[in-house]
Design a protein that fits this description.
alpha+beta, 2 helices, three-stranded antiparallel sheet, two-stranded antiparallel ribbon, 37% helix, 5 strands
Length: 132
């Protein structure tokens, strides 16, 4: 009995899937090894226009706000994006609008934005006060 094209394709997909899982787990371990609960780290979405990457330490954060983006479809569902203002590594003030990824419905985008805002507000509130 020979191996047919279908069996060969299934084996190739299984090997590819196993390799993807191995790479995903290696990335997860690397992220956990470098985890710093005191910093916000943003990795841009590859190939989707959000190519910026940055890190915000507690002392760099100026504020966390929310503002409706009237041009956004998700605003129809009540989603209000999170905006962080901080001092960049170059010393210049930056403002970045954060939005959730991989939310398939407008309601989930709203929930994810609310959860993100709550987490950032807790993080900001826990910052040590600057020395007087």
């Amino acid at each position: 009995m020979g191996v047919g094209k279908e069996e060969t394709l299934i084996e190739a997909v299984m090997v590819h899937t196993a390799e993807q899982m191995r790479l995903a787990m290696a990335l997860k371990e690397a992220l956990l090894d470098a985890y710093d609960p005191e910093a916000i780290i943003l990795f841009g979405s590859l190939g989707r226009g959000d190519a910026d990457e940055f890190r915000v330490e507690p002392a760099q954060l100026i504020d966390v706000t929310r503002k409706v983006d009237a041009a956004s479809v998700s605003a129809l569902a009540g989603n209000v994006p999170v905006i962080i203002r901080f001092t960049g590594a170059d010393g210049k003030e930056r403002k970045v609008r954060l939005h959730p990824e991989n939310t398939w419905t407008l309601g989930r985008a709203k929930s994810a934005s609310n959860a993100l805002a709550a987490a950032l507000e807790r993080w900001a509130a826990a910052r040590p006060s600057p020395p007087a």
